[in-house]
Amino acid sequence: DKRVAQARAEERRAMAVAQEQEMKARVGEMKAEVVKAEAQVPLAMAEAFRSGNLGVMDFMRYRNIEADTDMRD
Q1: What is the C-alpha to C-alpha distance for residues 44 and 41, in angstroms, rounded to an integer?
Q2: pLDDT digits over 13-68, tens only?
Q3: pLDDT at residue 69, rounded to an integer
Q4: What is the CA radius of gyration of the chain?
Q5: What is the CB neighbour count within 10 angstroms for residue 40?
Q6: Domain boundaries along the sequence of the chain
Q7: Quick one: three-class SS letters along the chain?
Q8: How far apart are the C-alpha atoms of 4 and 6, rounded to whole Å?
Q9: Distance (Å, rounded) from C-alpha 12 to C-alpha 6?
C-alpha cells in the first residue's frame, strides 16, 4: 500500500515537472511572438508617416507614452 502511494506521488511529481517544462517552453514561444510583433511597430509607423495618418505630434505623444511605460518597468 505504501509503495502504491509512493508510486502515485512520484507520478504526480513527474507530471508536475513535465508541465513546468511545457510552461517554460510556452513562455519562450510567447516571448518570441512579442519580439516579432514589436519589430512590426516601426514598419507600421513608417507607413503611417508616409500615408499621412501619423503626424509629428502624434509620434511625439507615442514616444512620451513609450518612455513612461519603460520607466515603470
Answers
A1: 5
A2: 999 999 999 999 999 999 999 999 999 999 999 999 999 999 999 999 999 999 99
A3: 94
A4: 24
A5: 9
A6: 2-72
A7: CHHHHHHHHHHHHHHHHHHHHHHHHHHHHHHHHHHHHHHHHHHHHHHHHHHCCCCHHHHHHHHHHHHHHHHHC
A8: 5
A9: 10
Phi (first) and psi of residue 58, to 5 degrees: -60, -40
Backbone angles phi, psi at 30, to 5 degrees: -65, -40
Rounded-to-integer distance, Cα 70 and Cα 62, Å: 12
Q: Is the pLDDT score of 73 beyond 90?
A: no
- CB neighbours of residue 39 within 10 Å: 9
Place of cell 511625439: 60
The residue length of the chain stands at 73
